[in-house]
């Protein structure tokens, strides 16, 4: 997709939404970082030798940083882009995986929610396009809106003439009088 400097599409394809999984995925790693940092500070002078205290803080700080940074990078490396022509999913920390589904191909869209996802209005959007395994947009914020937008985009791309004709003739005709 060719884009200009603003990110708008040159060939008529426009970006409808750029999404990531819900930021709630970073709650437990952040809580671990805060509690672990406080625990390290509290126990930083527990050993009689200074080098032991430095080693405890150094190893503990490195472990806490890794336990926080790995989920953060995993969250940052997962992106979903919905355009007027296709859906693009990019994920992967070291090995990048990119999957695309054209709206004109037609697919089945299912919304799945757990109890916690319902409280935050997020959910898993499952897209079955007849491939080996369905494409799953995990824990997407505003999942209802994403689900409806994908349905509308698919319908618009499956029958572009029907959509244009219905949009142009939205006037009510009574007894052949306008």
Description:
The chain is 41% helix and 23% strand. Helix 1 packs antiparallel against helix 2. The radius of gyration is 24 Å and the shape is elongated.
What's this model, at a glance?
This protein is an alpha+beta fold and 178 residues long. 41% of the residues lie in helices and 23% in strands.
Q: What is the 3D form?
A: elongated
| Rg of Cα set | 24 Å
What is the chains' assembly state? Answer: single chain
What is the β-strand count?
7
Fraction of residues in β-strands: 15-25%
What class do helices, strands and sheet pairing give? alpha+beta
Distance between the termini: 43 Å
Unreliably modeled segments: 164-178
Would you tell me the overall average pLDDT?
84
> So how many helices?
5
- How helical, in percent, are the residues? 40-55%
Taken in chain order, the helices and strands follow as EHHEEEEHEEHH
Strand line-up in the sheet with most strands? 1-2-3-4
Q: Which sheet architecture does the biggest sheet show?
A: 4 strands, antiparallel
